[in-house]
Design goal:
Length: 376
Amino acid sequence: MPQPIDPLARLPEEWVEALAALGEPPYRAAQIFRWIHHRGVIDPEAMTNLPKALRLALHEAGLAPPLQLEREHRSADGARKLVARLNDGAAIETVLLPVSPSSAVTDADAAAVVDDDDEPKADGAHEATIRVTQCISTQVGCALGCVFCASGAAGLKRHLTAGEISAQVLLGRDLLEPNESLGNVVLMGMGEPLHNYDATARAIRLLTHPAGLGLSPRRITLSTVGLPDGLRRLGEDFGGQIGLAISLHSANNVTRSALMPVNRRHPVGELLEALRHYPAPPGRPITIEIALIRGQNDGLADARQLAKALRGLRVKINLIPMNPIDGSPFGPPASAQIRAFQDVLRDAGYLCFLRRRRGDDVAAACGQLVRRDVPG
Ligand code: SAH
């Protein structure tokens, strides 16, 4: 027998089937899906237009909130790190990054990895609305062990379910200020999304379903070390509509393998080949992420090798001076070095941005997401 689908992660058509087994009419499916994924109400008891017996049945089927907000840390720069407790006691983090209109245009920081687009604004939003990019997690911990990243330091604890992934966005939306609206969602928090492909893909379907939050796939960017099989599936399943950010960090196999053990299994050439086949729409370049680490990957020869390796791909390059993490000897290069690195790539004709650090005073910046403040 196939595993029954977690009620929280059911799509409307799957609700129709599940409800038929309970003798309920199909129109209830849309009602329940809407409660959960449009209104953000997960406790069946609060679904007031459902009959009492059905609410009870949903409760017994295990429909319940999968996480609770435990803490909200506010950074001086406006980033808010949310620590959420899962039902098994594990904790994850998700970050809200308000994007000021000017920074979205002039800067390509973490909050603006998704390019400006011409999507209509959400429900009645007006000019003064501040767009918020939400960064969400896909795993508790991470199996990949990149040497500069805190999320993988203790290894993978477990995958998140599709319900747990999408519920982070419902939680984040509840915490928006009246003048804020959800702009983009980036899968750039803890974990490697393509290592948890099935749950991640289902979460994307939930978030983009028109009867739910209805997020445009173009507003979603998935950040990955670039597992080739996962890239292929993502391209096929979503027709290239999901934005890609690739944690390349170096185009040199020796350097990349030293920083990212996964490169020994899937070297640079295999990754770039997978990118050539990703069906990204013409107006949507793939973002190449380079965390610049002093003395490791920040030389001008590294920049030139990168420029050469990326030739022919439609990309834009984001340089992220490495955020310091506890217990790591690595750190960011001096700013003159960063500028020189950027100049090489710009002179070679690439769009290349320097990403501002956000939220690092509350350990919410890239690579800093772990439970520094709560016992495991
Ligand atoms: N596993 C995915 C998503 C999580 S990390 C991935 O690797 O892409 C999001 C981005 O932050 C990645 O580009 C990652 O390499 C980068 N990052 C990790 N640690 C960092 C650090 N200490 N400083 C700067 N960027 C870091």
